[in-house]
Amino acid sequence: MKSDKELKGISKYLSYVLRHHPESIGLVLDEQGWADIDALLVKCAAKNVLFEREDLALLVAQNDKQRFAIDTAQNKIRANQGHSIRIDAALEPQLPPEVLYHGTATRFLPAILEQGLLKQNRLHVHLSHEIGTARNVGTRHGVPVVLQIDAAAMQREGFIFYLSENKVWLTEQVPAKYIRYEE
Ligand code: HQG
């Protein structure tokens, strides 16, 4: 049985493989981003990242942000969001809350207020329903600042929003006119 620390290390490795670089271990994802669990175990083991099916089940169930999903037949695993590689998670457009939040670092503010929020190397811009979550995301990048997004206006004006399985709001871009922040 793995310790929490070991599971966290495996989780980070799986984020890298399943969101960004499956080819780094010779893994092929299907169009919806699913990886065969048996293949994943073998290919990770070949890179000396050793874990069992049971470790994976525990890691998925306990993951603080529910980053991964295992299919009902228990044969496949995928990252719920955060990809840079093209996958079609088959998400249905959803009506967003009136306001959504995006946490970022203060040093990005000038560029964001000029260009809007861009998805950079991910498939979507990531937005949160809760300020606290957004602040934590911002802290990952430096001195945090939380931007308030007028999601209702965006939706009215034709922007499409998706909700990932782990409740992250996703959209293609956020033009600067929909962004507010407190000094
Ligand atoms: C910034 C974590 C300059 C943007 C989190 C962000 C999230 C701009 C950074 C998920 C910009 C991209 C994603 C512009 C956006 N000029 N900077 N025009 N537009 N940016 O990591 O949203 O723990 O790709 O503000 O919880 O920080 O990995 O995106 O600071 O859900 O599961 O460019 O990652 O989840 O950074 O984080 P990221 P993010 P996990």
Tell me roughly what share of residues is in helical segments: 25-40%
> Quick one: overall form?
elongated
Strand order of the largest sheet: 1-3-2
H and E order: HEHHEEEHEHEHEEE
DSSP strand count: 9
Each distinct ligand: ligand HQG
Q: What count of structural domains?
A: 2
Low-confidence stretches: none
Highest-level CATH class of the largest domain: Alpha Beta
Supply the helix-strand structural class. Answer: alpha+beta
- Helix count? 6
Beta-strand content bin: 15-25%
* Mean of residue pLDDT values: 96
Q: Kindly report how far apart the N and C termini lie.
A: 48 Å
Describe the structure.
The chain has 183 residues and is α+β, with helices and mostly antiparallel strands. The chain has six helices and nine strands. Strands 1-3-2 form a three-stranded antiparallel β-sheet. Helix 1 (4-20) packs across helix 3. Helix content is 32%, strand content 19%. The mean pLDDT is 96. The longest helix has 17 residues, at 4-20. The chain has two domains: 4-79, RNA 2'-phosphotransferase, Tpt1/KptA family, N-terminal domain (Arc Repressor Mutant, subunit A), CATH 1.10.10.970; 94-180, ADP-ribosylation fold (Alpha-Beta Barrel), CATH 3.20.170.
